[in-house]
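Submission checklist for the structure archive. All mandatory fields must be present; incomplete records are returned to the submitter.

[x] Identifier: Carbohydrate ABC transporter permease
[x] Organism: Paenibacillus psychroresistens
[x] Residue count: 275
[x] Sequence attached
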Amino acid sequence: MLKEKKLSSTLASIVLWGYSLFTALVLLYMVYNSFRSKSDLLSNTFGKPRGLSLKTYGVMFKEQHFHMFFFNSVFILVASLAIIVLFSSMVAYALGRFKFRLNGTMQIYFLLGLMFPAQLGVLPVFLLMKSMHLLNSPWSVIWILSAGISMPVLLLTVFFAKMPSEIYESALLDGASEWKIFYRIMFPLASPVIFSICIIMSVQIWNQFFMPLIFLQSEEKKTVPLIVMKYTGNLMLSMDKALVASVLATVPILLLFIIFSEKILDGVASGAVKG
């Protein structure tokens, strides 16, 4: 039995390492080719490059205004994260701190939220945003993405529920209100979980394609994933720009995830295991 477990563990490690290596090689190949000219890519795709330069990167920022789309994505990301952290932490504090009749039902409600993507309700949401005059506004995408608080609420609920009751009691004895206990004591203590939530949600929000496609019609309002699609739609005409756009869309968020991977694991573990 022990041998079988060790063998399955070894096989799983080999598969995961193989997949990771393949992904890293693809990413490195994409970054490497982004420094080549279009003519070189088309005529000598797998051969030795005639030269490497940052010319296409300059074109993307000077002529294609990629920085504008990058800022749009950053604005949607930061605003969505702020709303998600604010609302999910308050909801989770109430669910983890207080015991009431519908406590379990509310947790099941948020658990079900993980199973149904927002795309299922896109038509009524579209009509709602239209009635609020938010179509073609980044705020339509921000409010929709901010509604996805199921995972943050579940992680933070477990964290707040397993906090020692002595912390609450001593704060109450010192005259602190529930609101003060939340934002002066509990919220700072939950910072590892909140940090992990921010990084995990950042990847989802940054790579969001469907909602910006539906709600952002103007060219100047579009986000990075939409611009990547614009260039990849006709690779023969814009292969160099497609590679640069893909690198600029992938590398920043990937580096962020890699740099803080340990903190992400610690935070998820803190919010996923009851003590």
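[x] Structure attached
Curator remark: The CA atoms of residues 171 and 177 lie 8 Å apart. The first helix runs from residue 2 to 33.
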